[in-house]
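Running low. Invent one:
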Amino acid sequence: MSVEKFSKPITPAMESTGDVLMSLETHDGAVLQGYSFGANVPAAGEVVFQTGMVGYPESITDPSYEGQILVVTYPLVGNYGVPDRTLKDDIVEQLPKYFESNRIHVAGLVIAHYTEEYSHYLAKSSLGQWLKDEGIPAMYGVDTRALTKRLRERGSTLELGC
């Protein structure tokens, strides 16, 4: 499994998100294509990956990812939606209840498979809607395993795109 110089999406476009293609371009000329489901804006930053089982709301609001394009390797993202962003923590009232901080810190999000059909009882919106509301680009249909392998072998690099 390797990231070629040009990689097409690994999944078909979903009707709910449309078929708007976007690209992640690396400094060494590789171009990975996927389908947009966040804000339709460009972004640039260091591409990093996360292989943990932490939820996507927690990951993208983690200040340690400030300005980075986050590759989430979890197989399916979006299935439990996004909880109410206005609820405050019971102990630290300045913090939101279900997030790591008060805002999204990533510059962009890259995933393999996405769904807008969320089912969690706390969900108030889809991940895609939240990203659009906050002006954060995101793409699905990328072979995140191959991209993660590339990042592990070559180190994180500055990337253009999203």
Q: What stands out?
A: The first helix runs from residue 56 to 60.
